[in-house]
Design goal:
Blueprint lengths: L10 H31 L4 E9 L3 E2 L14 H8 L2 H17 L7 H12 L7 H10 E5 L5 E8 L2 H53 L4 H29 L2 E2 L2 E5 L14 H24 L6 H7 L4 E6 L19 H19 L4 E6 L3 H17 L4 E5 L7 H5 L7 H5 L5 H4 L1 E2 L6 E4 L8 H5 L2 H13 L2 E5 L8 H8 L2 E6 L6 H13 L4 E8 L4
Parallel strand pairs: 7-14, 8-12, 8-13, 9-11, 9-12, 13-14
Antiparallel strand pairs: 1-4, 1-6, 2-5, 3-4, 10-11
Helix pairs in contact: 1-8, 3-4, 3-5, 3-6, 6-7, 10-11
Length: 531
C-alpha cells in the first residue's frame, strides 16, 4: 500500500505474514517436494535447430493464370513446415541418408532415394514414427519475417540434428514440388485451350468458304480475328511459363550437432518448487487476510471504500477517562492538535459546499461518537466559530458528562414544548464560542421526537444563528435515530473505531444513510489510545 505522501506502507503486508506464516511455510515445503520430484523425472533432451529463409515461389513470370503464391504467408508456411507430409519426406530423407552414408539431404542422389522410398508408400519407421517426429519438432517465426526456425528434440544429439536438418530440406522440397505442380497445371490448361481454339478456327475457315452473303462473311471474319488474337496470347503465356523460375528458399543455417542436453539442471526443480510454493502460500495468506473483515490500516481502507478519511483522533486509553469525568482535550496537547486538524478538514468541506449543519455518528459504540463530537465542536469554537453542540442521543445521553454539565433540560424538553431553547442552552466551560444543548429529560419514545416536525424547525432555526451546528447521534447499527436525524442535516461524519467496528459494519452504516439521501462527507478514525 502507498500512503498520501507516496511512501510504501508495508505494515499491512507484514501483519498478514505474521498472521498466516504457517500456511506459507506448508505451501513452500510442498512446492519443494513436488519440485524435487519433477526435477528427478524430467527427461532432458538434445535440441538442434535449422534456419530456413522462405522466398516467393515464382519469379520472372507475370502470368495471371499461374496459381502459385507470389507472397509468403509466414503463418501458413509455419504450419506447412510442421505438417505430416513434410515429416514423412523428412523420415524418407533420413532413411535414404543412412542407406547412402550421408547427411547431405540436398544432394540429388539422396533426394532420388527419398523419392523412391515415398513412392513405395511406406518408410522404414511408419506412420507412428511420423507422428512422433511431428511432436518432436517446433516451428517458429520472428516478427512476421520470412525466416523460419525448425527446432527438433530427441534422446540423442545425432537424432536431433538429423530431424531438424531433414525437416528443413523436406519443407523446401515440398514448396518446390508444389510450385512445379502449379506451373505444370497452368501449362496444361493453356495447351488444352490452344487445342480448342485451333479446332474452332478450322470450323470457321469452312464457314467462311461457304458463306452466302457479305454480312455473314464479315461476322465470321470478326470471330476468326478474335480467336487468332486469343491464340497468340496463349502462345505468349506458354512462353512466359517456360521462363518461370521456382525458388522455394534455402537453408541459411544447418542444424549443428548439440553438445549438451537442453533443459534445467536438477536443482532448478526444487528451487522452482520452493519459489512457486512460497508464492502460492503468500497468495493464500493474502486472500485469507483480505477475507478478514477487521480494520488494520483504517485510513487507507476507508479511502479504498470511497469514504473520505479526515484523520485520526484519540478517544480513550490513557488520554480520556470516559464516564463521569470531563473529556475535552486541552488546546495545546497532542490530542487537541489532532482534533484541530480534523475539524479544519471538516470545516473546509462544509465551507466549500456552503453547509453548517453536520451530524456525527458511528457504527456501534456511542462513547466514541460522543467524545469525537464534543471535541470537534470544541476545536471549531476555539478557532473562532460560533458553535452549537446538540446532544441527540435521547436513549443513552452522555454528552453533558464530557463537559461536566447537568442534563436537567435539553433537546427532548425543547421539542416537547416544556422549555424554551434559550433556557435549555448551556455555556461550555472555558470555551467562549461553544454552547451546548444536552439530550434533556428521558422520554419513552425518542423516535417520535426525532421524526417530528418540531425537530426540523429547530434545526432550521439554529442553523441561521450559528456558524456551525454539530449534532451528536447514537450509532447507526444500534437504532434508526441517526438515519432520522441525518435526513435533516446537511452532512454526516462517520466515526470509525477499528477496535470495535469492521469494514462490513461501516459499509452497512453508510449504506443505510445513503439509502435515504444522506451525504456522508467524511470519516474520522477513533483510536482507543494515544500511542
Amino acid at each position: 500500500m502507498i500512503d498520501g505522501d507516496g511512501v510504501v506502507d508495508v505494515s499491512e503486508y507484514a501483519s498478514a505474514l505474521r498472521r498466516w506464516w504457517p500456511y506459507i511455510a506448508v505451501a513452500a515445503a510442498v512446492g519443494l517436494v513436488l519440485g524435487a520430484i519433477a526435477g528427478g523425472l524430467q527427461n532432458a533432451q538434445y535440441e538442434a535447430e535449422a534456419i530456413v529463409e522462405v522466398r516467393p515461389l515464382v519469379t520472372n513470370s507475370d502470368d495471371p493464370d499461374l496459381d502459385v503464391n507470389r507472397r509468403v504467408n509466414t503463418a501458413t508456411e509455419q504450419a506447412i513446415a510442421g505438417s505430416q507430409r513434410v515429416a514423412e519426406r523428412a523420415l524418407a530423407l533420413i532413411e535414404a541418408g543412412e542407406a547412402l552414408g550421408t547427411t547431405d539431404y540436398d544432394g540429388p542422389e539422396i533426394e532420388a532415394a527419398a523419392d523412391a522410398i515415398l513412392a513405395d508408400g511406406t518408410t522404414a519407421e511408419g506412420d507412428e514414427e511420423t507422428r512422433a517426429v511431428i511432436e518432436q519438432v517446433e516451428v517458429s517465426t520472428t516478427d512476421d519475417s520470412q525466416i523460419i526456425a525448425i527446432t527438433a528434440s530427441a534422446d540423442s544429439p545425432e537424432r536431433a540434428q538429423a530431424i531438424a536438418q531433414s525437416m528443413a530440406h523436406a519443407y523446401l522440397d515440398f514448396r518446390r514440388d508444389e510450385g512445379l505442380a502449379a506451373t505444370e497445371l497452368a501449362r496444361q490448361q493453356l495447351v488444352e485451350r490452344e487445342g480448342v481454339l485451333l479446332d474452332e478456327l478450322e470450323v470457321l475457315a469452312g464457314d467462311l468458304a461457304s458463306a452466302d452473303s457479305d454480312g455473314e462473311r464479315q461476322a465470321l471474319s470478326y470471330r476468326d480475328v478474335s480467336k487468332r488474337e486469343e491464340l497468340a496470347g496463349i502462345g505468349s503465356r506458354l512462353a512466359n511459363i517456360s521462363a518461370v523460375s521456382i525458388n522455394a528458399g534455402e537453408v541459411l543455417d544447418d542444424a549443428d550437432l548439440p553438445d549438451g542436453r537442453s533443459g534445467l539442471p536438477f536443482l532448478a526443480g526444487p528451487l522452482s518448487g520452493l519459489l512457486l510454493g512460497g508464492l502460492a502460500g503468500l497468495a493464500v495468506a493474502f486472500m485469507l487476510d483480505r477475507g478478514d473483515d477487521r480494520f488494520r490500516a483504517a485510513s487507507l481502507e476507508l479511502a479504498d471504500m470511497n469514504l473520505r478519511p479526515m484523520g485520526s483522533v484519540p478517544v480513550g486509553g490513557g488520554f480520556f477517562r470516559l464516564g463521569g469525568d470531563v473529556a475535552i482535550a486541552d488546546q495545546n496537547s497532542d490530542a487537541g492538535e489532532a482534533y484541530r486538524r480534523v475539524q479544519g478538514s471538516l470545516l473546509f468541506s462544509l465551507d466549500e459546499a456552503d453547509k453548517s449543519l453536520v451530524l456525527v455518528t458511528g457504527t456501534n459504540n456511542p462513547q466514541s461518537t460522543t467524545t469525537v463530537a464534543a471535541n470537534m465542536a470544541a476545536a471549531a469554537a476555539r478557532s473562532g466559530r460560533r458553535t452549537l453542540l446538540v446532544g441527540a442521543d435521547l436513549r443513552r445521553p452522555s454528552l453533558h458528562d464530557r463537559f461536566g454539565l447537568e442534563n436537567h433540560r435539553g433537546l427532548s424538553d425543547v421539542l416537547g414544548g416544556a422549555v424554551d431553547m434559550e433556557a435549555a442552552l448551556q455555556q461550555a466551560p472555558d470555551i467562549a464560542n461553544l454552547r451546548i444543548l444536552p439530550a434533556g429529560s428521558p422520554v419513552q419514545q425518542p423516535a417520535r421526537l426525532l421524526q417530528s416536525v418540531a425537530l426540523g424547525r429547530f434545526l432550521s432555526h439554529v442553523k441561521g444563528d450559528y456558524d456551525l451546528v454539530v449534532v451528536e447521534a447514537p450509532p447507526v447499527l444500534a437504532v434508526a435515530d441517526a438515519v432520522d436525524l441525518g435526513r435533516l442535516c446537511e452532512g454526516v461524519v462517520m466515526v470509525v473505531e477499528p477496535g470495535r467496528a469492521n469494514r462490513s459494519d461501516v459499509a452497512d452504516s453508510v449504506e443505510q444513510l445513503r439509502r435515504v439521501g444522506v451525504d456522508v462527507v467524511g470519516t474520522i478514525v477513533a483510536e482507543s489510545s494515544t500511542a
